Amino acid sequence: MSTYIFGHTTPDSDSIVGAISLSYLKNKLGEDTVPSRQGEISAETTFILKRFGFEQPMLKTNYAGENVYLIDFMESSQSPKDISDATILGIVDHHKLGDLKTNAPLEMWVRPVGCSNTIVKQMFDYYNIEIPKELAGMMMCAILSDTVIFKSPTCTKEDTKACKALAQIAGIEDYKALGMEMFIVKSDVLSDTKRALVLRDFKDFNMNGNKIGVGQLEVVDLSVFDNMKEELFEAMAELKAEESRHTVLLLLTDIMKEGSQLLVLSDDNSKIENAFNITLENKQIWLPKVMSRKKQIIPFLEEQF
Ligand code: MG
Ligand code: MG
Ligand code: MG
């Protein structure tokens, strides 16, 4: 029986590439693993897979009775519904400690770095296993994506070091240019419905019994959203009502200006205003220097809840 390796719901490039890279490593170490995914992949991830000649992992949403490794998450709210009926053999992640429970000892590689693939690179080094050129290229792109080409405050020296080493293995000199190419693909917001945009990189968090959904769109120029704010709010309202969420936030991140426009729909705006010490105008506010949901948004919300 193969072990499945997968990332969070609404998978991003780190989750998809991480499933592939960790599976390759585990198989080299003599295990029988298969990368999988919990949902559809993004245009950015499609670009990366195509660039380096990989197929997307199989779509699988039920894991009862299976052995699994998790990569890039450890929250029940980002897990398959039946995760408690699966055996978690290990977790490779760079997020805060989540609420998942296991009934057996497990392997954990959890580090406060900018990308799960940085940790996978360190695992390759630890086991002294060579990374194939094309896989290295994909892992490099995952790091550039998660760290927003090293601009995110989540980016550490370990990420830049891993990224540069992977670029060398991949034979890519101007890796930042490739990163920009990737973010231009990611900046296409016109070919999707507004609902799909809000859901493109959307995560739910359970904060003291309240469901808080936070979406993020990273673009090279915020003006692409100029004429669609109201429609984005409508899509957010729909998502808020559907699953009785307390709050739905959308971060519109400008990777060149290095800040985010925060759109807010909440049962209690004061919680959001207090979290960031702001006053909302028209249900929104510009947050300079804010680029990371994980580091600059979630901890402050959790404090309020
Ligand atoms: Mg992720
Ligand atoms: Mg990640
Ligand atoms: Mg991200």
Please, what is the oligomeric state? single chain
| Low-confidence region ranges | none
Structural class: alpha/beta
Biggest beta sheet summary = 6 strands, parallel
Number of strands: 11
In short:
The protein is built from eleven helices and eleven strands. The chain is of the alpha/beta class.
Describe what this molecule looks like in 3D.
It contains eleven helices and eleven strands. The longest helix is centred in the N-terminal third of the chain and has 16 residues, at 13-28. With 305 residues, the protein is an alpha/beta fold. It has two domains: 3-184, inorganic pyrophosphatase (n-terminal core) (Alpha-Beta Complex); 194-304, Roll (Diaminopimelate Epimerase, Chain A, domain 1), CATH 3.10.310. The chain is globular and about 55 Å long. It binds magnesium ion (3 copies). Residues 14, 72, 94, 115-116, 146 line the site of one magnesium ion.
